[in-house]
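quick q for whoever's on today - can somebody do inverse folding on this one?? i tried earlier but teh output was garbage lol. tokens:
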């Protein structure tokens, strides 16, 4: 092989190999890489679909616990005694006061679930707890404390 052929081969090799490298360094278009062979079909089979689950049952809300009237005070307009205030003291003691009576009356109270019974020497009255309300004589009492 003569020198002239060698020079031509070197020039051709430089052009084929060197041109893409020079273009890449100069910020030009990157040399294309030969396409990678397509991967072999190595797909794994899908796992079996989960069996359908029954729909969750609707939860029925549990009835709310009635409020405990201990350490509260309520007032109601009583048909016979006018505005009556009942203080539910600890240990079942009650103090009842009316704008038609000159003094406070000592009594007792007892709560069984949503039913509240107040007893004083003149008689007794039963009320019902409904949510955060106390219903007596067919009307909602007004909570004072």
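ok took a stab at it. sequence:
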């Amino acid at each position: 092989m003569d020198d002239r052929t060698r020079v031509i081969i070197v020039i051709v090799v430089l052009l084929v190999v060197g041109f893409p490298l020079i273009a890449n360094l100069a910020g030009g278009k990157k040399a294309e890489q030969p396409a990678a062979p397509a991967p072999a079909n190595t797909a794994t089979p899908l796992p079996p679909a989960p069996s359908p689950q029954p729909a969750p049952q609707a939860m029925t809300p549990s009835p709310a616990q009635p409020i405990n009237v201990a350490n509260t005070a309520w007032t109601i307009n009583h048909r016979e005694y006018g505005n009556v205030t009942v203080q539910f003291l600890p240990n079942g003691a009650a103090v009842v006061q009316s704008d038609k009576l000159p003094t406070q009356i000592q009594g007792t109270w007892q709560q069984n679930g949503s039913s509240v019974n107040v007893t004083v020497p003149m008689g007794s009255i039963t009320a019902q707890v409904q949510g955060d309300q106390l219903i007596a004589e067919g009307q909602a009492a007004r909570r004072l404390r």
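fwiw The chain has two domains: 1-31, 72-143. also Strands lie at 72-78, 82-88, 93-98, 105-112, 115-120, 123-130, 133-136, 139-140, 142-143. so keep that in mind when u check it
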